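Hey all, quick one. A colleague (J.T.) asked me to put the magnesium ion job into the tracker so the inputs and the structure tokens live in one place instead of scattered across chat threads. No bug as far as I know, just bookkeeping. Sequence used:
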Amino acid sequence: MTEVLPESKSSKGTYGGALLEVDNLHVEFHTRAGVAKAVNGVTYSVNAGETLAVLGESGSGKSVTAQTIMGILDMPPGKIASGEIRFRGTDLLKLPEEERRKVRGEGVAMIFQDALSALNPVFPVGWQIAEMFRIHRGMSRADAKKKAIELMDRVRIPAAKERVSDYPHQFSGGMRQRIMIAMSIALDPEVLIADEPTTALDVTVQAQIMELLAELQRESNMGLILITHDLGVVADVADKIAVMYGGRIVENAEVHDLYRNPAHPYAKGLLESIPRVDLKGQELYAIKGMPPNLLDMPTGCAFHPRCPYRQEKCVTDVPPLHTISGTRGSACHFWREVLDGDAQ
Ligand SMILES: Nc1ncnc2c1ncn2[C@@H]1O[C@H](COP(=O)(O)OP(=O)(O)O)[C@@H](O)[C@H]1O
Ligand SMILES: [Mg+2]
């Protein structure tokens, strides 16, 4: 009996590790004011069919990590100080630019943080989607347009055939984001990074876009990295979560574990600051203080100036990422106390 490999992505290689792995990445920006350490030893991974949420306040290094994965970091002032980014086991940081380009779009694609403003106002949306196929696949105009309509259907844009020649301003924000998603999945990527894909949208539209991303992922078994500052938006669709603070991962967990009982005071603070529908008129908790200054990071744990669990040790010693169990980790000296819920 001959075994026929299904035409799935699993036939693309035999690499047994995670599909995309960021390993101890350090990125800094050399500016006139000094060296800003934007990414300080970030490690995370995503597999086919898996959704990783990367959560953190503005300035925590989420986008810089993603830009480094995509090979589009602004260099200079950016500089990759150390680390690896492996896609199917190959370190992308060591690949020549030409091979790197092949990974971009087909291997790993990205929806950018300011995607809504990225559409060109003077060209019909269908034309902009079709460009992907003309440039990357060398398709004829007619074929590329057909593919563009197919993709508009796939991202559930109603009446795609009629709307393919409409201009960006004729679409709502949610529909424009669907068009950006269509462009990002045009080349059938194995991993999709969505950087704050719903930030500029209304709450109801946010949920629809998340649902669309989840559906597309199920259909194609992509690995999905959802970057967000809003835990509430990703909780339903993510499998696991990496919480970033000051360019570090401070907690790694399965989403439901983090939701049930966070192991880092920062994650706990984020969780407590999500509005809950079951608590009307509640006073929302807000984490006190400001995000750290990357040019002048606090000593010890970067979160210590804001932390209700702070003790002497936190001011002097940088906490390593303690393994709590399995893949769960917390970079807090007092993770046990945090899990138990008693602040000092
Ligand atoms: N082009 C740049 N030049 C200088 N510093 C930058 C640049 N891009 C990012 N940074 C620094 O990196 C930090 C992290 O940025 P970013 O990854 O965009 O944060 P976020 O978590 O909000 O996505 C910023 O606070 C900024 O200090
Ligand atoms: Mg960002």
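Adding what we noticed when we looked at it: The two ends are 66 Å apart (CA to CA). Residues 62-63, 113, 195 surround magnesium ion (ligand 2) (CB under 6 Å).
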